[in-house]
Amino acid sequence: MKILSRGITVQVIAAILIFIFAYAAISKFFNFEIFQFTLTLAPVVGKYAKVLAIVLSIVNLLPVLLLSIPKTRRAGFLYSFCLLLIYAAYIGYSLLLEKDLPCSCSGIAPWFTWTQHFWINIAAMLMAMTGFLITNNLIAIKAPALAKADNRER
Fold it and tell me: Does the keyword field hold Transmembrane (predicted)?
């Protein structure tokens, strides 16, 4: 039995991030008018809502593409991390300085509070950074006990 934990870990992280970003982009496209309107109510965004609604919908598709192609996966992890960092910073800013916050998730998870979205973004950021570090061989995933057991079976 070969241990493929590094490759499997990278694929699982990529699949989760692909799902998150694809679902976000698709739900924004299908609910575009609602998403755009909700953005007009959001802190800081208000007057830029029309342009930002288009940009955010497209920006969420890029990590899907990058993470889907093995040769660009490393860039996809880094891009995902940066994008999630921006989202988390915006949510954090809004939570600290705004009182009435509309949900502009547009189908991702409308039942989540802004605080829950913040923590979900942090978790996704950590996954993206972990994927990036693994693909750069900065984190080694080894299972020495399993490797020894595998050698004994032969």
Answer: yes
Location of structure tokens 């490759």? 7
**81 neighbors 129 (Cβ within 8 angstroms):** yes
> Alpha-carbon torsion 10, 11, 12, 15, what sign?
positive
| pTM reported for the whole predicted model | 0.78
Amino acid at 138: L
Q: Which residue has the tokens 């940066």?
A: 82
pLDDT digits (tens, 9 = 90+) for 135-144: 887 666 665 5
The 10s digit of each residue's pLDDT in 5-27 is 878 889 999 999 999 999 888 88
Amino acid at 142: K
3-state secondary structure of 1: coil
Please give the Cα distance from 9 to 104 (Å, whole number).
Answer: 31
